[in-house]
Write a structure and sequence with these properties.
Pfam families: Methyltransf_4. The protein is an alpha/beta fold and 107 residues long. It is 36% helix and 12% strand. It has a domain at 53-107. It has helices at 23-36, 47-51, 67-75, 88-97, and strands spanning 57-61, 80-84, 104-106.
Length: 107
């Protein structure tokens, strides 16, 4: 590589890309977000208040369609789970998977 300048990949900033919500995901937002959703405030979260207990909280950032988060919550309902995702269709998909759980919140 003598005489050559190394090729550096350009840093890309995150850009929010919004997909379409299915009818089921839209219904999940309308009916389940009030129960499971945690609005972003920019400040610290009061986790015992959100979950109603002081059990351990496991957080998954960028949970995609929520499959692994839902599996963990179903398998270990004694723990609390906080999922953070900016892709609304993924949040809608997770909401459909966790309807009967009490140990999950999403933001």
């Amino acid at each position: 590589m003598t005489g050559q300048t190394p090729h550096h990949r350009r840093v890309r900033s995150y850009v929010l890309r919004e997909g379409r919500l299915t009818a089921g995901q839209q219904r999940a937002f309308e009916t389940l977000w009030p129960r499971f959703g945690v609005p972003y405030t920019g400040g610290p979260l009061d986790l015992p208040s959100i979950f109603g207990n002081r059990q351990p909280v496991y957080m998954e950032i960028g949970f995609g369609n929520g499959a692994s988060l839902a599996r963990m919550a179903h398998a270990n309902p004694e723990n609390n789970y906080l999922g953070v995702e900016v892709h609304r269709p993924g949040v809608g998909h997770l909401l459909l998977r966790i309807e009967e759980l009490k140990s999950v919140a999403t933001s």
